[in-house]
Amino acid sequence: MIIRTVNSVRPFGYTLAAIGAAVVAGLAYYSHQQHLQLSDATFVTGWVLLTAMVSLALFNIRKRLSMMPMGRAAYWLALHVVVGLFAVGMFIVHTGGIWATGFYEQVMAGLFWATALSGVFGWLYQRAMPRRLTRIGYEVVYERIPAEIAALREEAEEAALDGVGASGEPTLGRFYSETMEDFFRRPRFIMSHLLGAGAAQQWVDIRFRTVRGLIGGQEEPALARLEAAARRKLSIDAHYAIQRSLKLWVAVHVVLSAALLTLAVWHLILVHVYAR
Amino acid sequence: MTEDKNRFAHDRSPYERPNFPFRCGREAAFGKPCPRGPTAGGDCQGIADCTPFRTRKVVTNPDTGEETEIQRWECRRPAHAGGPCAEGPRPDGACSCSAPPCAPKPTIRRQRGRWALLAVAAMVAMALAFVGAAGGIIGPQPDHEGVLSHVGWPSSVNPGPLSGKHEQFTAKDGCVSCHVGHSDTLTGWAGALFERATIADACVSCHSFGEKQADTDSKAASPMAFAAHNTKFPSRPDAPTATCMGCHTEHKGVDASVTPIVDGQCAACHTTKFDDFAESHPKFGANFPHESARTIKFPHGKHLDTHFADPRYADRAPTEGCVSCHTDQADGRLLPGSFENGCAACHEQAIKEQGMAVFGLPELSDPELTAEARDSCGFPAPQLESARATLDALAEALPTMQSLGETAESGDVDGVMSAVETLNEAQATITEAQEEMAEAVDMSEAVSLDSLSPTAAFLLAVPAEEVDDYSEAAAEFLIAAAADGAAPLAEAIEAKGGDATLLLAGLSPELVTGVTCAWAANTEYEPKQDPEPGAGWTAQETQVSYLPTGHADAVTKGWIALGLANRASEDEGADAFAELMLSAGDGPGRCFKCHVAPAADAEKQAVQWAIPRRDIRPFTAFNHDPHLNVLDQGAGCATCHRQLEPGATLAEGQSRPGPHANDFKPIDQQTCKDCHHPGGVRQDCGLCHRYHSNPSIRKRTM
Amino acid sequence: MQDPVVAAIDADAFPGTIPLDGILANDSRIIHYKAGEIVVREGDYGNSAFLILSGACDVVVNPPLTDAQLGRQTEAPASLGRAIAQLWKRTVVPEVRDVARYSDISVTQTDHQAVFLQDYGVVLGGRSLPRLGAQQMFGELAALGRTPRAASVVCVEDAEVLEIRWQGLRELRRFDAGWRRQIDENYRANALISHLQDTPLFDGLSEEALQSIADATLFETYGSFDWSSSFQRADADARLSNEPVIAREGEYPDGLLLIRAGFGRVSVRQGAADRTLTYLSAGDHFGLSELYAGVKGDGSPMEATLRAVGYVDALRVPTQVLEEHVFPRMNTAPDSFLQYAARPLADDSLQEWAIEERFINGTMAMLIDLDKCVRCDDCVRACASTHGGNPRFVRHGKINDHWMVANACMHCSDPVCMIGCPTGAIHRTQAGGSVVINDDSCIGCGTCANSCPYNNIRLVEIRDLSGAPVQDEATGQAIRKATKCDLCAGIPGGPACERACPHGALQRVDF
Lengths: 276, 702, 511
Known about the structure:
heterotrimer, A: 276 residues, mainly alpha, elongated, B: 702 residues, 3-stranded antiparallel beta sheet, two-stranded antiparallel sheet, 13 strands, 7% strand
């Protein structure tokens, strides 16, 4: 059985990108021609840029109005990506460079580039990270992670106590309270999970290998339970790290764009007051 | 437990609602969340797991028939939270699964919204805070000593620092200096949003471009109509309208160019469009750069090859090559220095010696006319002396003659003899005096010239050579001159349109009277001392002359101007006079050995004495400085300026206009292209060409 | 027992393990309906047949009862206004309901969950409807064939009705010739011809030919009617071997199998195991290529095994009838299932999974490509904003490779959730065929949620407009309502979740 992918948005995106590139090129040419004609097109390119930026922000509105028949968000995202890249082109055409001279314009340019770069980063990040999440081999809804961790902690604690109870030896109890309790307290090894490094797995491997050498057969099932919980914890931590990073990225992008749009409106008012 | 595949079944797990803005606070600390979770407003609802329900049951005692109501509290914990708890409610009906309330945490999404609002508020605050003192914070700030500096608050209005050229300029009025829309009040600002002001108006309130003052005040429709070189060329209706902002930019930084012109912008109007100087610039003129007529004839070849080669003058030869003389930088050109520093060493003396005879004393056809003149003069001095000697002798003899009767009556023979002797002596003295006097007025040998000077002939409008024709006018003039000195001469000059004050500057009336009377007395005027070269007005023998005081003598230039003014005149003697003034023979015309006289048919009959300091190509500028370090070793200036070989001549059209050929070869365009080509040195239009022909700052700005 | 129909059953024909008494005691009950009460609703799925012992009921056809009369949610056309209205319906409090509406519901607690047709006298008055009297049976076809009820039946006078569950009915049919004849005749008379007409294989056959096929066709059912309850308990690894075999590889076919309802698994022997090639659903047939080969040449054994996945209702068309009416019209050999065997063995994974997990049942399963999904929950938020602030699914579910089937209603072709709903609140819409719950008539019993093998129905504790939890005054129990995906009924543009996914990771698919 083959699961077909519904309407790929790629043709749409490519068409849009071609149109966007053509518009940028056209406006760049127009702007240059106007400059040569001793006139200037910054008002035209500025309005186009502002329109592009506002339509980028509309993506957020679309998400809020998802009950409305406003087309598939996948098309919107394609539009968002293409218009975003288009806006970068328009920014260069509009400003004639990549940086500004005045204080507030530098703040605005800084915000623009931060927004644009965070957008490009996010675009790539959102394409890379889902696979990483899938490869973890365990799926968990972000909101359930704390409860999962709490349950794992309970389970681990119980396993350690069972181990002590079954053998009368304090080894597992000590191991739990000295080392694992802190591990189960909250998500650990965030950066390692984020970067896909194996530090967390190695940490767990080494500790369990060491403790395995110190226990007897009666404690073995309890240690196995403890280890299973620890391994599940690794999966959940990885989910926590990556899902959280995906959410924080959007937050950064949204906050930057809100600031940018505010300054853009300010800029709009200024140029109309001070224009030639 | 976590391995239980069904633990998220509908009746075993809470319903996930990721759209809710708050999460349980215990959960945020990675503890076990309460089953109820927070409200949408962020309040904890999880103090108790459930709200126990009180059931009532009426039980009848089978023995007594007494009915009692039994109340029980039942747990109502929902299935997904684990169903009814083992402990059950407390006797008072409180849930036994209770915990202290938590502080619910907003989700990232919720926080994101707050941050975004904060960012918007921060931007608005920044914009408003830094605009608050907009007038003060834009551009450089005067410090407490009034000195402008760039230190100051950043501005939320200023799009960038003004260029160094303008940064001081807004110190007094701030933004309003250029932006009439700028206002300190919100309403003024709002109003400006919908008004279109023109910054160019502000530009031309300081800058002028050679236009007449009246033009700016009348404020033509386009302020640029007069401003630039497009007014020098035929206007094309299809040419774009130029405003200051079309080419000039501001607010791009202190060091930024305010004129970032690109070649393409020139092409907006210029019909000959090209983008590569080396490839497609129109050909230079065939005689480039010798495109203007010469004003000084300086034969470089003759001086360098002949004169300075002569051992007599070898010590005066230039020692530093071209720049020995070409010391004057103007418009990027290297002009020869002054006459004094260069030419004077050889040519000064000759100028001072080059006298100009204004008028001489002619012989007249009728001696009576001379006598009339003599009347005006009175006795000439030698005759007066003779007369005085006669009178002295008579006066000396008079007492003797008066006493002669008495002596005779007395019969004093000795006395008579003494008286006769005295009288004889007196007689001898008087005779001698009479002889001397007769000798002094000897008219048989006339002391006068046989013709009028060309100047005098022109001034009196009579033929110079015909005695009969000029005698009467000359006599009249001389009689008047004998009486009034220089006045008749001045009168004659004024009559010809000359400026007598300038032309006769330094001429004393005595000199004129003296010379005239000497002539009337038929004597030669004897100056007190011999005239030195450069002495100015002199009289010698029968001539009144002018010896230039030096180079660029104003009187001489005045006479030459008079000559030029009458060059085409039909008046009697005008030709000869003009010839005298302009031809490189004797007299003032000698100036034109080096200077260039205007052509006879030239519209403007004036001598261009000095080398014009302004280039005749107002939109082209060549700056020598940057080229000096690329000159060929040894060749120096000759890298570009190649002297003509002796005897060689230039092809038609390759030399300067006018009669005075050039002694340098034209500079070929290729010479420029050697360096100015793609990949080489700059070759943009603005490198050599200027847009504004005569930019200046208005006086009222100062 | 005194009823003539029941009395006519020959108790001796029943094996000792399944005595008639047991069947009647366990699988049937007597229900007293009042006049105006609805016994079965058109379109419902039911697991029982009804035998009228006394009284009379009307079969309401031409025109049928409306959704409103049946206590169903009225199907509203999708409109923009409804979408815009959601902007104001969103609340910060979960599961808010206008409780006042519920007072209209005519549900009363008797020996059964009774639903009355309001003003039945007026509604049905003057219409001459088919009337069912004592000893007449209805609902047996829907019960056995797992097909929707063909018509509504309303009691016009107080009636005593024997409800026989499908298990009992099946045993009765199996062991009692009279019942079998009766049921088969009913089916042959009422539904079979039209069913055959809908089968592409019989396109273009004359009515006489169809009639002769119908006359010869045999009825068979396999597997367990309520497979869903056993499915949730069963160990996935042992399922294939537990599935009843309908036709076995290597044996000789005696007729063409037409699937009428349920799903069949086609497998072949692969080494030491059975390899699933494909699955069959309603309208598919099995054995045609072997029969065709057998007719054209030598007898051909079955190439593959057909098993019932959960439950299969099949028709067996004997070979002779096919030889007579169908094969002469075929020019080329029909496709064999063996074509699927050419596929690489390892590529079976997804299909195997879909069959194992019974996702083949879904017509609108929510399939998420985890390699694209950034876990942003935009789909959940979109769902919530389309449903008054309440999400109607959980973005969690079973995973195979990078595919996840989330806990959202799949709108099954065999909707087991609908079996046993006492009020008919959960039903299939007439127009779209999606499965929806009428919130007004849902009594929160949880039958559907427990029946759903996929965990896609959630019971929620409702709150009134002021946000206070709604409780049953007598017991203090929270009033619950069953909720699930309704495919954004009434909202133009289709399911909001699919539209809201910015990465094209989420799609609603028909397995």
